[in-house]
Amino acid sequence: MNTALDPTGATAAYLAKLPKGAVETAAHYTQGSHWVLVIGKLAAVVACLIILRSGILPRIAAMTGSRNRQNFAVFATGFAALLLQALLLMPWTFYADLVRERSYGLSNLTTGAWLTQSFITAVAGALVGGLLFIPLYVIIRRAKQRWWMWSSALLALLIALATVFAPYAAGLFNRYEPLQPGVVHDVVTDLARQASLSGEEIVIYDGSKQTDRYTASVTGVGGTARIALSDTVMRDPVDIPAIRAVVAHEIGHYKHHHLLILAGAVALLSCIGLIMAAFAFPTALRLLGGGGVGGISDASGIPVLLAISAVFTLVTTPVVNTVMRLVERDADAYGLNLAREPDGAARALLATTSYRAPSPSRLEEVIFYDHPSIESRLRVAMEWKAAAQGR
Fold it and tell me: Which PANTHER family match (predicted)?
């Protein structure tokens, strides 16, 4: 007769496999990341202050010509504001995204590759942002006091589109190719069929170029799904149960439309942020010292909006993280029921300890964690295993 599994004891047994030094390093990295988040937002506000007080944006707007070219002036001003902010933040992001990550063994990027990616991201972001500012300022000029209402509808649509198509932007920095036939291809195909995915495409990409993180994703539009595995999951010895668990979890995100749920939550928060921006703009403008800005309808005040956004996104971080933890819980449950690999899920979770402290305090988890803690997810997996043994 089999002895009933004790989920608490099984969870503790898995956590005991982690070297003490690795757990301490993970805790230092995770807690440091909280400060990186806060300092990054504050640095963004300081960058906005510098741009405003330099007076460069009104000069750029004036160089665009007559009032009949307002839309071009908005684009030029928005492009310049976003690009200047990225450049001013470059020393900080260089430390936070490369130097610090390297010090913990979490980045494989060369300095040249990081600079190239950062430049492409900054220019592309400035171009897209500059274009998106055009309809925003058209609405501000025409809707007057109710600009935030119409802008909210526009922003919600843009966030939904960005959320759906953003995963495909990864092709800018990584090479994707079909996963060759073999055991891994077979088990992933089997999971896709069990989940009733149609027209699935299974690819592998060179994720190890950036990081050693054990990861995969499932994306798709119009009823087709692309299952993408980082090459990090293929390193010897290949853990088939862990791969099954990870892919099943990601299929859960896809099947339950978690990207769209997250987009809806972010869109709702963004609408609240626009209302806040409408009321806070005069005060923020005065505090930042943008004396040459004629009001919220003046595109030279874009740095004020960016500063308000930085503060708002920092304050609402716990809200966004809570929504993300909820969808991660749901994907965990789906993945366990689909793959039926609780021990594979446990081993995959232990592989994330290098960048996520396994047992944070409840307050730390609520405020800063966008995934449930490793310890709590291990317990869920072991509870599922115990329940399965009893059936």
Answer: CAAX PRENYL PROTEASE 1 (PTHR10120)
